[in-house]
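Exam prep: given the inputs below (a chain plus 5-amino-5-deoxy-1-O-phosphono-D-mannitol), describe the expected output before reading on.
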Amino acid sequence: MCGIVGYIGNGNVYDVLIKGLQRLEYRGYDSAGIALLTPDNKINVYKTRGKVSALENFCRDKNTESRLGIAHTRWATHGEPTDNNAHPHYSEDGNLALVHNGTIENFKVLKDALQQHGVHFHTETDTEVLVQLIEFIKVQNSCSLLDAVREALKQVVGAYAMAVIDKNEPDQIIAARKSSPLVVGIGDDEMFLASDATPFVDHTKNVVYIDDEHIAIIRKGEPLRIVDFENKESKVSVKQLEWSISQLEKGGYPHFMLKEIFEQPETLRDCIRGRAVADQGKVILNGVLSNSEKFLDANRIIIVACGTSWHASLLGKSLIQQFCRIPVDVEYASEFRYSKPVITDKDVVIAVSQSGETADTLAAIQIARDKGAFVYGISNVVGSSIPRNTASGTYIHVGPEIGVASTKAFTGQVMVFTLLALQIAQLKGSMPQEEIQAMLDCICRMPEYVAEVLKLDKAIQRLSLIFTYARNFIYLGRGYSYPVALEGALKLKEISYIHAEGYPAAEMKHGPIALIDPGFPVIAVATKSATYDKTVSNLMECKARGAKVIVVATEGDEEINKIADCIIRVPAVRDVFSPITASVPLQLLAREVAILRGCDVDQPRNLAKSVTVE
Ligand code: M6R
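Solution:
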């Protein structure tokens, strides 16, 4: 949450920073700001409530000439999203400007101490404490900015990625991280820093991921240096970025979300490439193969995740239990850490996260590691914190997901869980080879099936029109379709702000059916499966009470016509694969309803893509 970006080089600093902020806007969009060091070593800070476009308007008549700068897009934690609370924050004497992503947990204690020394504060943020503390130490100790930052960070409790500039030490940006992401991009005679590599991918593919509790010293005309808080020099390890610029643009689509929904045939292909080797009857998931004894000896698998990743994990549980006969628990990462979990070194913990930066999931990983469990990561963002903090893992390889509502990451995660369960089953011998072969054949056809589903977009657009009146939705499913119902409901509520709940269909009569009155929309995922007949009975119960029933059903299912008011037909696939085909129309439906309601599909209110605070 929050995005930070910095630039030092011969390019137009303002343009680079604004473009960078636009790319990072998915991380928060409550306010935006920029600090520019002018050619005569003054710092101009411009900041405003609202999105990056508001900042651009604000800067239109301002002096933006500069030699280096830092910038920020905010998801508010401490202090309302006002102009004043927007970053960058500056020290009292105006010598320093600082941007920060994360939370300073002991800010109150530090603030009180600084106030006792006569320091005045001008904002409600925790971040201002950091910049004032650095300035205070710098003046007290007559030391360099670097030394002041090191000393200050030793006093700070919390999570941060920060960058600071000093008008008395021009041509330098000092940046540091603890538990929040920070990468440096190294170009020709220019360097970038950012919360992720998206701001500079069109300038350089050479990236350095800064480790926790390390400081990057970015100076004009000098190579990047990294030190720890004790000033011990660290090796600078440059990695190559694989992203392309087209993956970060809308490519003719009105929204990233729509682009990402339509990319799914391709992203599923990328996800299974080299892993589902149908002509050899094999699954090749290297992270599992090279740790096979961990999975085969596991007493239990615990999956930790949040949001959409948690829904994919519920499917992971069903797949692993069914294919491998290993007990699996799924936990909200945010609850796991406070539940005094019983974990042993015979457990395998799988952490699932699109961004690889979710603070709660990272904290759950730490607990599992401390207890000696083998921790496996499923993530999308290469080089993010979760792959770097897990013993092994698998990337879903769906490319950058920019829309706040997760779509292609969900289907990628489900696909990886399918491969993972099949891989363990193959190693364990818990599934006959003919069955594995049939699964592999189906996996290879999934991109085509999803392409078929996407042809429903116009029909779903028409269907959405009749639901503009509804303020509540219920989504139902059983078995593999239950997590799909949860995910469908989450998509609707997060981008259209309509209340929606997902339930296992049979649970309706234990309470929620009381909500049903004439016209109440019930969306059911009732594809052909072992629980199909039971689901139909549950829908009849809703229908009998006046519900308007929309069903995601299997092509060729005529029986469903008797109860459904509207039907969305998806290709017939084995029930374990139906979550992938059935979730796509629900993604489209949520988007259509959100558009009709005039909502900001890619940047829904109050949300941010990467949740780096607890
Ligand atoms: O990056 P992660 O997968 O760890 O993110 C977890 C959730 O914050 C995320 O899935 C969120 O629920 C999405 N906005 C849902 O669309």
